[in-house]
Design a protein that fits this description.
This protein is of the alpha/beta class. It has nine helices and ten strands. The strands form two sheets. A five-stranded mixed β-sheet has the order 3-2-1-4-5, with helices on both faces. The chain has a five-stranded mixed β-sheet with strand order 8-7-6-9-10, sandwiched between helices. The radius of gyration is 21 Å and the shape is globular. Bound molecules: 5'-O-[(R)-(carboxyoxy)(hydroxy)phosphoryl]adenosine and zinc ion.
Length: 340
């Protein structure tokens, strides 16, 4: 028997992107994201401004997702929304909207864990992208997250390593800020790094036991290094920007790779799937691909639009939960912090 057609409307509003997507089973029909540029002038996300912008964006974003998918509200099978983790004010906008619409349409409500969604984004059916098989290790790296997750099944996941302070995206962005680059500086460090010498300025890597990460020490080391160098030569940063960026990026990649190597050793799992905005980094991509030949690993990098915060990833988890009939009633609460 053929699978019935399931249409899921998914809503993501955990941080500073208001996103909606429509999926037909595991295929994405539309994936709309409204970025909130307002935060750029503050050098980071301002929670109060984020929830206000979500309120303004949510109706037009959902409307655009339905129109783009060419789907009427009445055709929807269920509504999935991000329950957490995230900023409470932001989460509440998405959850209230999802609850009201599910109630009005009399269809099931699906509460989704944002971190599970980053992992399961790899299961969106997309031409040219292979899905990992279980078990695999997921490395989720973004402005808000840095986790290594052992994934044994769709809903059997264990965090085996995570940051004890800054996320890796913050390490990129805060380093960029020290160099006087605009927010978010990660993509700029990547751009300049491609022209520089990664060994020009060695930075000490933090010593963190086990599979956990720490990035705040690196940021401080970079700050002191730049302060010292600019006191000797005020033009140090501009004269050495490419080499500084290449060295910072190289250090961050080494920190990540050392922990992945250790996770592979400890778990015996050689399939690595990465996700989150930092997975756009060209150095990380190249280094990870090299491990396929070097160590016999298999690596997975999803389509970029499914790797930064988006609603299609919420929809694919929604689809799995729909199949297992894991529905919620409208009393379900948003959670700023949740584990799996
Ligand atoms: O997943 P994302 O869009 O949002 C969340 O933080 O949840 O990730 C954004 C982060 C920012 O810190 C940004 O600087 C970083 O991803 N990023 C990069 C690159 N592209 C985005 N970091 C390094 N290299 C890049 N090419
Ligand atoms: Zn995220």
């Amino acid at each position: 028997m053929q699978n019935p057609e399931v249409f899921i409307l998914a809503i993501e509003s955990s941080c500073d992107d208001t996103a909606a997507a429509v999926l037909k089973n595991d295929k994405v029909l539309s994936n709309v994201v409204a970025n909130q540029l307002i935060h750029n002038q503050y050098g980071g996300v301002v929670p109060e401004l984020a929830s206000r912008a979500h309120q303004q964006n949510i109706v037009p974003v959902v409307d655009a997702a339905l129109k783009k998918a060419n789907i009427q509200k009445e055709q929807l099978s269920a509504i999935a929304f991000t329950q957490g983790p995230g900023l409470m004010g932001s989460l509440l906008v998405g959850s209230s909207f999802a609850k009201s619409l599910a109630l009005a349409l009399n269809i099931p409500l699906l509460a989704i864990n944002h971190m599970q969604a980053h992992v399961l984004a790899h299961f969106i059916d997309e031409e040219g992208f292979e899905k990992p098989s279980f078990p695999f290790l997921a490395l989720t790296i973004s402005g808000g997250h840095t986790q290594i997750i052992k994934v044994e099944d769709y809903f059997t996941m264990t965090i085996i390593g995570e940051t004890t302070d800054d996320a890796v995206g913050e390490a990129f962005d805060k380093s960029a800020k020290i160099l006087g680059l605009p927010y978010p500086g990660g993509p700029l460090i990547d751009k300049y790094a491609q022209l520089g010498n990664p060994k020009a300025f060695p930075f000490t890597k933090p010593k963190v036991a086990g599979l956990d990460f720490s990035f705040s020490g690196l940021k401080t080391a970079i700050l002191y290094f730049i302060q010292k160098k600019t006191s000797e030569n005020p033009n140090f940063v501009t004269e050495n920007l490419n080499d500084i960026c290449a060295s910072i990026q190289h250090t961050i990649i080494e920190i990540l790779m050392n922990k992945i190597k250790l996770s592979v050793k400890e778990t015996g799992i050689k399939q690595i799937a990465i996700g989150g905005g930092v997975s756009a980094n060209s150095g990380i991509r190249t280094t990870l691909k090299e491990t396929e030949k070097k160590y016999g690993w298999k690596t997975y990098i999803p389509k970029f639009e499914y790797t930064t915060d988006n609603a299609a990833m919420i929809g694919i988890v929604g689809y799995q939960k729909y199949l297992s009939q894991t529905f919620e009633n409208s009393n379900v609460v948003s959670k700023a912090r949740i584990q799996f």
